[in-house]
Amino acid sequence: MLTVRDIAAMPGLELAVVAGAEGLDRSVSWLHVSELADPTPFLEGGEFLLTTGLGVGELASTQRAYARRLAGHGLAGLGFGTGFGFAEVPAPLVEEADRLAFPVLSVPYEVPFVAITKAAFAHLAGEQLEQQTRALEVHERLAEAVIRGRGLHSLLAVVCNHLDCSLALLDEHGRVVSERHGRRRIGFDGALELPVVAGGEVATLRAAREGRPFGEYDRLVLHHGQTALAFELSRRRAVSLAELRLAGDLLEDLEEERLDDRETGRRMAAFGLEPEGSYAALLAVPRNGETGEEVRREVAQELDRRRVRYLSTARRDRAAFLVETADEDEILGLAEQVAKAGRRARVGVGRPARGRGLGRSLLEARAALDTGGDVASYRDLGSLDLLLSLPDAALEAYVARVLGSAADSARLLESLAALLDSGCRWSDAAETLGVHRHTLRYRMERLREQTGRHPDDPEQRMELWLAVKARQALAARNGPTPTG
Fold first, then answer.
1. Is residue 483 very low, low, confident or very high in pLDDT (cuts 50, 70, 90)?
2. What's the CA gap between 470 and 392, in Å, rounded?
3. Which of 49, 98, 250, 378 is most buried per CB count within 10 Å?
4. What are the residues whose beta carbons fall under 8 Å from the beta carbon of 382, sequence distance 6 or more?
5. DSSP of 179-241, one letter per residue?
6. What are residue 207's DSSP bridge partners?
7. Contacts of 430 (CB under 8 A, 6+ apart)
8. What gap in Å lies between CA 352 and CA 350, rounded to an integer?
């Protein structure tokens, strides 16, 4: 019978008991390697688990929960490889393991897990020893690839070359993210499908092989592959989220005119964009309750398919892009294609620009969205195009002078805008608003009392129209103005 004490005493390995000394006499049925936060679904109890700590988490609470999970499932003990994610076994894990009399051994960085299993399995089995050793060698190659950030393609290569099979990783929408084959390409009809869970999203690993099914040993190797792929997807997701936040900061700084051309070029170059290149803003607003990030992914997929270079970010209610373009017709045609392909968003487009001029393109795209339609551009802005070029102070002063206190009344301004948009056809405007014509006239009388102006007077009508458009320009630039 092999015990944890036997493993701790194996010569030449320099394993140290760091916790749970009272449980050293637990018998060991097998050795298993896993970096999952919860490997227990794959264990029967009695195993001695080996890990480099990738799955134990950074928080004390998650480290304690990890120890409780293993002990509660009846594992014999834990071998913790130091020098990878942790210089030493985390203190919270040690404290919880001591409390539970769950033995934990510290494994020096220089000691490969294979060395431990070779010594331990001499007590257990011959053929199984060979298989487990080979599987652990695969695990160590996978762990090294994850730590060195070699990517999904390299991880799939390690597994498919070892098992001589074809592998494909699909995202949660069924799209192929990465694919690799052994000596020859094998189709995936009837392939074995395994879940790869990363950050709440579930990808799928497909495995196919001709001539012989996947046995117990093959599934063990595939399990190691699942774990490594999950960590790589989580890492990529974290990097992607950081890049999206930085891209959002850049677009916000451009809109707020905080950058000069030199700083704009420097920050664009950091995203792999050409600092002197021509780009246009493209904003997409989701339909049907979808999020800005869902729409960003859909539009990004279409741009990737067309091999267009871009920078993107997402807010809760919209996605924003700077899209490389040679001329106005090109970006307008591309926007039409994107809207037609997705049918899940309205698209607004600004004119092509360079450097800090991209801030104006972003404003134009935002204002264009307010003009309606599936696709709108700066060409649809009319007078707003001119007003967007004026500073906020000038627009705010004009609105205050013409509208006065009426600027704080949403009902009056909505009624005024509807009347002006109808060409001062009172019946049409009242129908648009869903009110009686006399109600609309009453509201315009209230407007005259507060502003000294009435839309029936042609000269005053022009002043009121310009004030409404000035408010729209301010809303496009700074967001909607609060009204009472």
1. very low
2. 9
3. 378
4. none
5. EEESSS----TT-EEEEEEETTEEEEEEEE-SSS---HHHHHHHHHHHHHHHHHHHHHHHHHH
6. 167, 192
7. 436, 437, 439, 440
8. 7
C-alpha–C-alpha distance, residues 396 and 186, integer Å: 67
pLDDT in tens, 243-288: 778 888 888 888 777 888 888 888 888 877 888 888 988 888 887 7
Instruction: Please report, as a single letter, which amino acid is at residue 335.
Output: A
Give CA–CA dist 159/151, Å, rounded.
13
DSSP 58-73: SSHHHHHHHHHHHHHT
Query: Could you tell me if 97 and 123 are in contact, meaning their C-beta atoms sit under 8 angstroms apart?
Result: no
In one-letter notation, the amino acid at residue 373 is G
> First-to-last CA distance in the chain?
80
| Predicted confidence (pLDDT) at residue 127 exceeds the cutoff of 70 | no
Whether 406 contacts 412, CB under 8 Å: yes
pLDDT digits (tens, 9 = 90+) for 209-239: 987 788 878 888 898 888 888 888 877 776 6
Tokens of residue 87, six digits: 């210089």
Structure tokens at 36: 């999952």
Express each pLDDT in 40-58 by its tens digit: 999 989 999 999 998 999 9
Token couple for 230: 């999950």
| Domains delineated in the chain | 4-124 (3.40.1390.20), 149-238 (3.30.450.40), 256-381 (3.30.70.270), 392-478 (1.10.10.2840)
Q: Look at strands 176-181 and 192-198 and give their pairing.
A: unpaired
- Residues facing 482 on adjacent strands: none
Q: Label residue 404 exposed, middle or buried (CB < 10 Å: 0-12, 13-18, 19+).
A: middle
pLDDT digits (tens, 9 = 90+) for 341-368: 766 678 888 888 888 888 888 878 877 7
Percent pLDDT > 90 in the chain is 22
Which residue in the block uniquely carries the two structure tokens 């609060």?
Answer: 482
